[in-house]
Amino acid sequence: MGPHPAVAAIRLAVRRVLHDILNDLHASDGRHASAEQGPHERPPSPLVLVACSGGADSMALASALAFEAPKLGLRAGGVTVDHGLQPGSDLRAEEVVLRLRELGLDPVESTAVTVGREGGPEAAARDARYAALDAAAERQGAIAVLLGHTRDDQAETVLLGLARGSGIRSLSGMAAVSGGPGAARRYRRPFLGLDRQTARKACMVQSLPVWDDPHNTDPAYTRSRLRHEGLPALEKALGKGVVEALARTAQLSRDDADALDTWARQAEASVRDAAGLLECAKLYALPPAVRRRILRQAAIEAGAPAGSLFARHIEEVDRLITGWRGQGAINLPGKVVAQRQGGRLVIRQG
Q1: Where in the numbering of this chain does the tRNA(Ile)-lysidine/2-thiocytidine synthase N-terminal domain appear (predicted)?
Q2: Where are the domains of the chain?
């Protein structure tokens, strides 16, 4: 008799992602040996880490990685991040380390972070967590880090983006593959096609202990209110299937946003003059979605922090092109200034 359907589902999701990781590795150069190794030394097997909080989603992910990785010649390790936001969080992190080792993961580490206040508590915790995961991946030489985000998390992310009114990229939710500078494909989310209940069921039938973070039910947090009040209200009003529909919207939006980004990159050179300045007439001729992407990128290149650059900022700059009435310079985050000068748009540090 095969495994429980929930266990089979999480294992299949992880197996597919591990195959993708191996394909990427072989496509890059097929080598994973360090420069110090001699010609007859076998390189260590590539390492894949799982980021684990001890919750149902990440424990299910850890169990599936522990089962699947050795079959593909990969090492499976784990890292848990102690945010220090609750009493006893250090002890809980130690418990998670023990649980991951019991699953057979090695190496496993706990890393403590200090959560700042930039952008609100949820954003600050997320920034600290990813910085710690990046550091752990570099330290361990991992080729990828698996994250336990589910289809339910994706639906919540889409709704939060919709509420912010920040455009199609916001509606595209979390990418199945993402990363930062120098590691563009580090993070993998195998469970984006699975619901939260499947992960929890997989833990239950495997007798895996699960820790439920009280922050996930704390109404002080926006995502928690959305999870326990907003989405259930939507399902009550619109019927079941809302989560699946929102996740599908995320994928369609991502495809559209990627296409527009490509168009904007290709069009960018054609709207600059010989001196490299943006020509307002040529920008005006572009579709708004393409033009605004070019303006946003120009602002970022001039020094505006991407995370502080909102749609309203770009709309103001856009009016220098589409609604020109002799208005003055526009101040953007990062002390960047945008102004129109003789048919050219100049965006630079003020």
Answers
A1: 48-229
A2: 5-238, 272-349
pLDDT (tens digit, 9 = 90+) per residue, 24-68? 998 876 444 444 445 556 678 999 999 999 999 999 999 999 999
CA 292 to chain centre: 23
Ligand-binding site membership of 264 (annotated): no
CATH of 5-238, one of 3.60.15.10, 2.60.40.10, 3.40.50.11190, 3.40.50.620: 3.40.50.620
- Measured between alpha carbons, how far is residue 39 from residues 33, 35, 36, 75, 185 in Å? 10, 10, 10, 22, 29
Q: Is the peptide bond before 107 cis (omega within 30 degrees of 0)?
A: yes
Global pTM? 0.85
54 labelled binding-site residue: yes
Is 148 flagged in the annotation as binding? no
Span 60-77, average pLDDT: 98
Task: Please provide the size of the chain in residues.
Answer: 350
CATH architecture of 272-349: 2-Layer Sandwich (3.30)
* 56 carries a ligand binding annotation: yes
